[in-house]
TrEMBL record:
Belongs to the protein kinase superfamily. It comes from the Eukaryota. Residues 94-350 form the Protein kinase domain. Pfam families: Pkinase. Residues 1-85 are annotated as: Disordered. Its EC number is 2.7.11.11. This is cAMP-dependent protein kinase. SMART domains: S_TK_X, S_TKc. It comes from Rhodotorula graminis (strain WP1).
Length: 406
């Protein structure tokens, strides 16, 4: 989201004692990333639920196959059983209310189910644009990954369907908006607030890794807040089943691990590196390798150099964990050692976290969004609405065979 669309974020930030950050803010990162050359742009599926600048913040290349990784042995909750989601719904099952976000391939709508009268989000993707942007594999992979997962801190996919022009994905409507919006309003989070969000994200990543799925696109824009203040990670366009190693260059520049930047084979530990970047950005208000240089190569040089200046107000415990996550040496990176994710969950920074209670959402969130009923979308930007008459097209379908799972 480009803006929260609701002034209550600022008031809540003051109540929680959020402090003003240095000039290097998450907003500045957006402005810098928008200046990247088109060659560095990849994909926006409007899944976040939508940021019109997402396309300019992403990288993507075609995947390459390959071999071996250290899998976290930490037991994870949830089931990997796939659910029947293909062609489960049709357009007539929903009433379209408003647009929640837009992207390179289409947009996300808030809808009402004609059957249970509940609110959902439907992501609509143009087949033609997906094919043109060479994102068929990522789109099919997103659908496949979402069908496999079920976790309290991941967005749910309820079903998919398609017509001759578009693909449709029926997902949770997560009413609290993006964590990015809250972070931008707050400038930076106090240590306990950053810890709460980082802990829930860590549980979700550990669950994905237990299914041998790398997420690869962690950032505040892809973390939604429910009406209860708990997180829901969305946008699985870069998620991939990887039992060992992969080489695909994709993700958001500020969050890329050095081995990705250097086009080396990488494993699931890149997600733990990204968790370190997220922790740093929540605590500081800007990512660890922030640069005002519009040339992305300067950013990549800083990531490879790996030299980080930690603000003086970081606690020693937070700084210690960050050093173990943001190390370039994967033989020393937490999450990639013999104890797997247990090194992270057992770190002193997380020592007061009751992980079972957190998983069950029994620990109250430090910030509860202002949400007035099931249909309140005020935490999302307002977008010009589009003509819905093209939805449900029945004409020629030259690209239909490319999306067999929908």
């Amino acid at each position: 989201m480009a803006d929260a669309g609701s002034g209550h974020y600022g008031a809540s930030s003051q109540q929680h004692g959020y402090q003003q950050a240095p000039a290097q803010s998450a907003t500045a990162r957006h402005q810098q990333q928008q200046q990247q050359p088109a060659a560095a742009a990849a994909t926006s599926t409007a899944a976040g639920y939508g940021h019109q600048t997402h396309a300019s913040r992403q990288l993507a290349r075609q995947p390459e196959p390959t071999p071996q990784v250290v899998l976290s042995p930490t037991p994870s909750h949830g089931s990997s059983a796939s659910r029947k989601t293909s062609s489960r719904y049709s357009l007539t099952d929903f009433t379209f209310i408003r647009t929640l976000g837009t992207g390179s391939f289409g947009r996300v709508h808030l809808v009402r189910s004609q059957h249970n009268q509940r609110s959902y989000a439907i992501k609509v993707l143009s087949k033609e644009r997906v094919v043109k942007m060479k994102q068929v594999e990522h789109t099919n992979s997103e659908r496949e990954m979402l069908e496999r997962v079920r976790h309290p801190f991941l967005v749910n996919l309820w079903g998919t369907f398609k017509d001759s022009k578009n693909l449709y994905m029926v997902m949770d409507f997560v009413a609290g908006g993006e964590l990015f919006s809250l972070l931008r309003k707050s400038q930076r989070f106090p240590d306990p607030v950053a810890k709460f969000f980082a802990a829930e994200v860590a549980l979700a990543l550990d669950y994905l890794h237990s299914l041998e799925i790398i997420y690869r696109d962690l950032k505040p824009e892809n973390i939604l807040l429910g009406a209860d203040g708990h997180v829901k990670i969305t946008d699985f366009g870069f998620a991939k089943h990887v039992p060992d190693i992969t080489w695909t260059l994709c993700g958001t520049p500020d969050y890329l691990a050095p081995e990705i930047v250097q086009s080396r084979g990488y494993n699931k530990s890149v997600d733990w590196y990204a968790l370190g970047v997220l922790m740093f950005e929540m605590l500081a208000g800007y990512p660890p390798f922030f640069t005002e240089d519009s040339n992305p190569m300067r950013l990549y040089e800083k990531i490879i150099a790996g030299k980080i200046r930690y603000p003086a107000y970081f606690t020693p415990e937070a700084k210690d964990l960050l050093k173990s996550l943001l190390t370039n040496d994967i033989t020393k990176r937490f999450g990639n050692l013999a104890n797997g994710s247990r090194d992270i969950f057992g770190h002193v920074w997380f020592q007061e976290v009751d992980w079972e209670r957190l998983y069950r959402k029994e620990i109250p969130a430090p910030y509860v969004p202002k949400v007035d009923g099931d249909w309140d979308a005020s935490n999302f930007d307002a977008y010009p609405e589009v003509d819905l008459s093209e939805y449900g097209s029945t004409g020629p379908d030259p690209h239909g065979h490319l999306f067999p799972l929908f």
